[in-house]
Amino acid sequence: MCVIRRMSEGTMIHPTYTTILNVINRRFPQKKTLRILDYGCGSGYFLEVFGKTRIGEYYGYDLSEKSIQCAKKTHHNRNVHFFHIQKDNASLLKEKKNIDVLVLIGVLQYMSNKEFTALLQNAKKLLAPNGVIIISCSVDHIVYRAMNVLQIFSPHQLIHRKRAVDMLKQVGFRVVHQYERGIILSPIFSQLMIVFDILDKLIFSTKGTIGPIGKTMRGITNILLSLEYRLPVDYGYTLFIVAEK
User: Fold this and answer.
1) What residue numbers bound the domain in which 143 lies?
2) pTM exceeding 0.85
């Protein structure tokens, strides 16, 4: 079962996405349309949040064939493209050029060092001269490691901030921003969402997208997370990195 999700007016967006949107708007205040590459696009949620009026070209890549199928059923614009890839297919990205923004949202924690390095090497080739790579991922602090009790259901690693920054620099990127957000509520809600998504799979047979339970609970928790993200503290569960060539 593929649950097709569309943004509606008044829908509370997760602050991770609004943070990334703010970065893009500050980076490209005058540019009317942008070429976006969304690596780990899922069923196309970032595209819904970003809005299609400012899309010049959008390329979404994901390892989940179910997610890509759902994305294609939802988005039919001629300038929107979705691709199912394997883990070792980072070289496919070389076919796309002059990308303004490459986003990796919640992806890095599922990649090995080798995979991430290969992706970064390709990113340097495909980004436009003023292009940026924007990363958000779960950051490695001892307190969050202890809270990651449901890792058995959703195996992923927590990313050490210095390691991610160093890898970007080694490939030749210049890190222009790095900061953390979501000090307490973010890790708690992240664990709860795993439970809600499991319930969706059991009850509604959802696979490759977010089901009705997960969608409803995210809408409720996003309000609280948005308030937490406003705290002027550079410590939290989600790490944001913005880098340029």
Assistant:
1) 15-244
2) yes
